[in-house]
Amino acid sequence: MFGLIGRNGAGKTTLMRILATLSRPSGGQVTFDGIPLEDVKRIRSFIGYLPQEFSLYPEMSVQEVMGYLAALSGIPGKVWRERIPRLLRKVNLWDDRTKRAGRLSGGMKRRLGIAQALLNDPQVLIVDEPTAGLDPEERLRFYALLGEFADSRTVLVSSHIMSDIEAVCENVAVLDAGRLLFAGTAGELAEKAGGKVFEVTVPREGQESVKRDCHVLSAQGHGADVRIRALADRVPAAGRSVPCVPTAWDGYMELLRRQEQEVGE
Amino acid sequence: MKLFLMECGKTARGILYWLFVLVLFFAGVRPLDETVESELRQKDDPSSVFYTAADGVYARDSGGLTDREIQENMMAGAVARLLESYQKNAYEYYPFGYVKTKTLSEEGQRVILSYLEELTGMGEEAINGAAEESGEEEFRISGGGAYVLEPGQGSMAENGQYVIEPGDWKYTENSAEIAEASVPFDRFQEIMGEVDAMIGRGSCFSGEMLELYYCGNDMESSPMTERQHREFYESDHVTGAFARYYCDSISLVVLGLPALVMVELMMKDKNRRMQALVYPRTVLGARLVCTRFAAAVCMVMVPVLIFPARSLVMLVRFCKETGIQPDVFAFVKYALLWILPTVMLVMAMGLFLTILTENYSGILFTGLLWLAGRPSIGKIAGGNYGLFDLVIRHNTLKGYGRMTENLPMLALNRAVISGMALLFVALAIIVYETRRKGVGIFEKRKFFNGFKVKCTYKP
User: Fold this and answer.
1) Does A67 sit within 8 Å of B6, measured CB to CB?
2) What's this model's pTM, rounded to 2 decimal places?
């Protein structure tokens, strides 16, 4: 699984749409295993796509939606008659197969979304912000499901939640304002913040000085003190500072901080 | 086939589809059923298309009349009609190709009364008195002579219909006896022009309508001529005449509403945000667009073909009783040859415009098409076909000969309309494929609120 992370508006969805042959790039080149993006028909035969924003014909049942999209994928009747029940069972929607798509919950809709993306048994599965709007439990369940499907194919998943990406992806890319800031493993991303992450404990009234000197990642009150996790180029002067082991999230924030500094300069 | 059936199902789930079915029923099917019932009920009436003269003598064909006789007929018929309209204060006109009735104000009625006085030479009392005497009875004008319904004849049936028996008619050689115009033809035309202006566009007293009704266009509700009788039984095999009439009744419905069905079907993808799921599929754009088009056209044609079933059964039953061989496929033939090309063109335009603009402006354009494509009143009798006429009119049960005389132009017209439909489908496929590949069309234009792509990618 490959994770694509970036802020809102970073270009994740645009990139995903380009990869799904829905948008044309204004520049650059995209190839899938040597096949250029221009060979749309061929590419469409081996990709599956779950968009960030989608809906389904609400008047159709779950099974009808799958059948309709299978027909659009040119899947022979014999194949989809076997595949649709299997996929619906896999995403735990078989019991709800007669339910109208318009009456599905957010989580069920996402699961149906992943099932439809797998209809043509794609080699590459493109999943854009799959957990937006889902509660934490549904999010975990969804990523577990995605992990199962990733066994035999490449899954490209985008999110703006680092913990989601970090938990399921071996490789990560960071995108910001349409530019690739990083590509590598989650560990390598974490290293970007190596030696720059500190946990600073200061009295509540002193936290403003920490905010001025550092990039605050999180802050937690502890009685009269505040424990702040911050990014800084040198040890913060205020309070008691303890160096921390950076996470991929810290590395991501460090990349964004640098990017902002460059833009500021 | 599965995709086709699913698209049919999607079409049938649309609100606008059922609106179309409803309008079709009220605009086309009910008038047909009523006409069939009325004509069958009055089959012994000389003006009914079913009428067969026991002695083999029919009314004179208006084709053999002199200009003077035609003028006399026109004047007599128009004056009688004006008198009847005045009495009921109900003046028929065709503002949008369909008949409507206008009620005049007291002042307007006074003006009409003055014209009637001038035209007939009768006084107000006599005219109003005639109204009281004649009641619901009608004057029937025909070429050269006329069958006149004497006051007090006819009877009211249980169902409220006014029934006229053969004996109720009295034939008179001089139609001027019915309502004699006492002015020269030029003055008659002037008065008719003024009456037409009072009633509104397409009134029954416009020059176009007078010509249509009284110059041998098979439009008169006059007694059958021998030619008309032969055409009805031998050429039309009874059902053909009603099939044409049915197609005429629904012609203005199919000129507009099927486009809404198409627009609704195509807009479902956008409204349901299904485009991102549909576009990356492997199905060819041509196949998808053609399947949707074919499904929507089929779903529109299904009620068109089913609705006349009741009338057809009545007609076939009549034919069996009288030993005539009916053409049981007449409705199917006329619907497919006359109606289908129009349906195809209107829907193809809706398809193309919806794919192009990705909004409901297709409805606006097809509304304009409807306004522009309505045939002129002069064409309602049929037989007068233009190469680019969007619909074929034939608002009479007679006139088979008029149609066959102009059959080559009719066939060419239907071929051109079908060809244009296929051209729009081809254009729709091209635009659809372009959109699927992410090429924005009219992206910056608010009016054409296209499938916008906010591309922030900078290489």
Assistant:
1) yes
2) 0.77
